[in-house]
Amino acid sequence: MGLFDRLSRVVRANINDLVSKAEDPEKVLEQAVVDMQEDLVQLRQAVARAIATQKRTEQQYNKNQSEANSWQQRAQLALSKGDENLAREALVRKKSFSDTAASLKSQLDMQSNQVVTLKRNLIALESKISEAKTKKDMLKARANAAKAQKQLQESMNNIGTSSAMGAFERMEDKVMQIEAESETAAELGGTGIEQQFAALEAGSGVDDELAAMKAQLAGNSAETPILEAADIPSTTAPQDAVIDAELDELRSQLDK
């Protein structure tokens, strides 16, 4: 017996879990309102039947009470005419109708209480249905917002692990690698704009140094006394020619 109880409990637990997972709040709310509307229809029908029964009982009560009053008057009439036997018979009939009226009065009171209770329940159910409809719209909006938030969060979580994001990051690394290789090639090749400006600056320095040397040589020549032809070494002219040739070579190289 214990084993069957445990198996039954496990089966019911699994079924409840499946039902809970399958429940859609929006659909369940809609169905709940539909069920409440059906209950309202049935309650209205019950109220209508109770009122109809109450009216029939009331009619029967009024009829028997009227008959009882009528036989009461007949009994009085017979007694006033001196016919006691007829008066007694009238009182017997009156008692029968009075007993029936009393029984119907008890039923009528009970039915009246039932109708009042059913009407109160009907009003309460109508109020609950109205409140449920308002809550249903609010809960549906909250459920939709929660679903949207959940989907957004799942999308954000999937972005970090998706193949597209991984490919994007790989391409970013590859572009950075290509840029680094390009900068390295430019530095090694020496043909970049920085190198060109460096060559121009170097050339300007040589020209400035050459101009300074010329100015210095010109100043020394002015201060040096003119020597006699006999004191000038015979190798001066050939050396000057060699220097002039070297200078011309330097100018041509700079011009190129």
UniProtKB/TrEMBL annotation:
Keyword terms, alphabetized: Coiled coil
Pfam families registered for this protein in UniProt: PspA_IM30
Xref: InterPro entries: PspA_VIPP1
Keyword Ribonucleoprotein among record annotations: no
Coiled coil: 26-60, 101-188
Parts of the chain that traverse the membrane: none
Annotated family: Belongs to the PspA/Vipp/IM30 family.
Name of the molecule in the record: PspA/IM30 family protein
Organism: Waterburya agarophytonicola KI4
